[in-house]
Amino acid sequence: MKRVLHLSDLHYGKDRADLEDPLLKTIDRLAPDLVAISGDFTQRARRGQFDRAATFLDRLTVPWLAVPGNHDTPLDNLWVRLTKPWKRYKRAIHGELEPVFEDDGMVVVGVNTVNRFAWQRGKLSNRRVKRACRAFGDHDERSRLVMLHHPLQHGPEVEKRLMAGADDALKAFAECGAQIVLSGHLHNTVISPFRAWPQLLFVQAGTCLSSRVRGEENMFNVLDLTADSVRVESWGAENLIFSPRLTRSFFIENGQWVRRDGPLEA
Q1: By the 8 A CB rule, do 7 and 38 touch?
Q2: Which of 22, 64, 135, 152 is the most buried (most CB within 10 A)?
Q3: What angle do CA 66, 7, 117 make, to 5 degrees?
């Protein structure tokens, strides 16, 4: 079994500094095989905000993988966003915008969905999708995860426009053997098979550190994986302590994700 701890939307510059140490201590206690971070390290892509994000990453004691979010390119500096959108991210976080993590039990493929020309809405090209699919190689016995910032599905309560290319990407990921899609962006937790593609599990993380919460606590997800099952536990912060809030378990039956447990566990 492998363990992935999924963080998103740290938003340094609009963060709760008092939660950083509790979060890091909880990560150490959970001892994941990988920390997967689905973007928005900063609020306004300023150097000082990236410096704080880099310090956070330096304090992690386990491997990590990250992709950028739309807030990681400047909103208020149009020239930098259009001409050098990734310079600050690459300096502080990582030189690779679409990294891949592999070990004996899983493959996690990062995909960059940020569109510098439409700051809020993401974009996913066929080229990026094909590259991600190639990273899985043959459909072996390992767990296969895709991580991106913008979600590939919105609920009816979401007013933001769905990312360009989302529907085509879902179809391609389902057909090339991906199993789980990790995302963030909306600051809310979602754990469910995709409506049109139940062979893909949708795992969206809330914000782990931002003060800009949207109807739920500061949250992150923990995934315990085998090749054909996953247990997802969402952890929330109360009184500077992170603890489990809900758990959902799924297994693959006839090529689709099926809920294993009963009603939501609080």
Answers
A1: yes
A2: 152
A3: 55
Strand order in the sheet with 201-204: 100-102, 106-110, 143-147, 180-183, 201-204, 190-193
- C-alpha–C-alpha distance, residues 203 and 110, integer Å: 14
Instruction: Tell me if residue 177 falls in helix, strand or coil.
Output: coil
pLDDT tens across the length of the chain (266 residues): 999 999 999 999 999 999 999 999 999 999 999 999 999 999 999 999 999 999 999 999 999 999 999 999 988 777 777 888 899 999 999 999 999 999 999 999 999 999 877 767 888 899 999 999 999 887 678 999 999 999 999 988 887 889 899 999 999 999 999 999 999 999 999 999 999 999 999 999 999 999 999 889 999 999 999 989 999 999 999 999 999 999 999 999 999 999 986 443 43
Report helix, strand and coil shares of the chain as percent, to nearest 5: 25, 30, 45
Q: Are 168 and 138 within 8 A, CB to CB? A: no
CA angle 151, 101, 52 (to 5 degrees): 70
3-state DSSP call for residue 262? coil
β-strands 241-253, 256-259 pairing: antiparallel
d(CA 222, CA 55): 22
